[in-house]
Amino acid sequence: MLMAAFMQFFITYSLAMMAFWILEISTIVFIVYSFEYFLGGQMFPIDIMPPAIYAVMKWLPFYYELFAPIAIFLGRLQGAALVQALAIQTGWLLLTWAWANFMWETRPRPLPGRRRISKIISVVGNPAAFQALKPPAIERDVL
Question: 58 CB contacts (<8 Å, ≥6 apart)?
Fold first, then answer.
């Protein structure tokens, strides 16, 4: 269950990191979540599929996000099938972690001149520093 949660996190994190390069990622998110919904066993049990399709679906990461942990919990995966499922799930976990790490390392970096913006933000969040920026009061001659 923990590996499935981390896989979902790394996939979602990678999708979120795509926003650095693509302005509109909602379509990509929708497509990935649709695959997860249909191929992960949320719409219907995967084991009712024909054997050829079931064999392909067992190698996709979506199978190990929901269906495999439930099958393990229900006792449907035992012995060699359990070991194989955990090995494949570990492989997908490492792959999704590596992809999320790659997305983080290749993100666009801020330019050196952008530090001034953080100084402005720190002044806005600090009332004492904001008072220091106010112009001095103008004294008027009173008649």
Answer: 46, 88
